[in-house]
Structure formats: C-alpha cells, structure tokens
Design a protein that fits this description.
The structure is a single chain. The chain is α/β, with parallel strands linked by helices and 207 residues long. The protein is built from 5 helices and 7 strands. The protein has a 7-stranded mixed β-sheet, sandwiched between helices. Helix 4 links the parallel strand 6 and strand 7. The N and C termini lie close together (9 Å). Necessary for normal cell division and for the maintenance of normal septation. InterPro entries: G_ENGB_dom, GTP-bd, GTP-bd_ribosome_bio_YsxC, P-loop_NTPase.
C-alpha cells in the first residue's frame, strides 16, 4: 500500500500564519481552479472525498493540509500533502483572486518544508498565461516540480506525448521539472506520480 493512502485531513488555514510550524516534508498541489487538483489528490490517496472536489471551480479558498502518519512514531507525520487555493477562476471577485494569489505566492516563497511541487495543467488547454504566472512564482524556490497533465484520457496517446514535450519546453524556466500525462478517471500516470511524491516525502520504503 502506498504511504499516500494513509493521508488524512489535519488543518485548513486562511493565512500562512495559521499553519503549523514547518516540519516534515510537504508536497503542495498548485494549478488553475479547473485543472482537476482535488480529483488528483483523491486518486493519489485512494480516497474518494479526501480533498473537496466541486463541480464549481474556484471553491477551494483555503490551504488544506493532509497528514501522512508515521507508522513507527505514533502521533508524528512522515509528511503532508498540501492543497493550495485554486488559482485564477474568472467568476470570483477580483479582490478575492488577488487574496488567493498572495496566499499561494507567500506559501511557495516562504515555506521551508516544501519538498516538491505538483503543478496541475489541463492537457487539453496546455500551458496558459496563468500557468506561466505560477511558473514565475515556482522558479525562484528551486524546488523540484512534477507537472501532471490532467484529463489525459481525453486525448489519444500521440497527442499526450506531444503535450508533455510542449509543457517541458514552455516551463523550462522552472528547472527541475518532470511532466507526465495523468488522468484521475482512467488512472493514467498514477503509479509514476505516486512514486515521485513518495520519494519526496520519504526516500526509504516505509512498512
């Protein structure tokens, strides 16, 4: 069983200073509001309702942390999965979008326990202007990035491969970037994504 399957909700925070002190490795999930972020977290954790998945994009307005318990040290965590506010949904008031952007940017810039960043990109849309803004925030952190090209089941294999190459080219400023097609529905890319995230949290095999 993947260590990610043990994840459970620990805290929601509206501001950075409401988070627990930095500690175990954190893997944060960022992306446009309709890129399938919550669905990706749920399938990686093998839980249907761990992260809130709404039919109305832009509903994730808090930083949500999901702890992965340490089986060898009860009460402690191996690490956390962190669901950051969905970015850029147009139907939300402009001042609210700005607030979310500041929270997201502050977290990426100041949180020392970030071990890796999962960037969700809708494979059908490719890299948008908003994705490029996210990339500009991510690049200075120097953290490794896994780009999941979500909804890959909507494209044939050949187009998926081309989309991956395009994303790598467009986001090359990030540096340590790995990209792969991903589908929460058909579980495309799930084993490889799981392995990447597990290695960020705990390089050793955990019983």
């Amino acid at each position: 069983m993947s260590i990610l399957h043990r994840a459970h909700f620990t805290i929601s925070a509206a501001q950075i200073d409401q988070l627990p002190p930095p500690g175990p490795p954190e893997v944060c999930f960022v992306g446009r509001s309709n890129a399938g972020k919550s669905s990706a977290i749920n399938v990686l954790a093998n839980q249907r309702k761990l992260a809130f998945s709404s039919k109305t994009p832009g509903r994730t307005r808090l930083i949500n942390m999901f702890g992965i318990p340490d089986p060898l040290s009860p009460g402690d965590f191996l690490g956390h999965l962190v669901d950051l506010p969905g970015y850029g949904y147009a139907a939300v008031a402009r001042h609210e979008r700005q607030d979310w952007a500041e929270i997201l940017g502050d977290y990426l810039a100041t949180r020392p326990s970030i071990a890796g960043i999962v960037l969700l990109v809708d494979i059908r849309r490719g890299v948008t202007e908003l994705d490029m803004r996210l990339a500009q925030w991510i690049a200075p952190t120097g953290k490794p990035v896994l780009a999941l090209l979500t909804k890959a089941d909507k494209l044939p294999y050949g187009k998926r491969i081309k989309a991956v190459a395009d994303v790598r080219r467009q986001l090359q400023e990030i540096g340590a970037l790995h990209a792969l097609p991903f589908s929460s529905t058909d579980r495309i890319g799930l084993p490889e994504a799981t392995e990447y995230i597990e290695n960020w949290i705990s390089p050793k095999v955990v019983p």
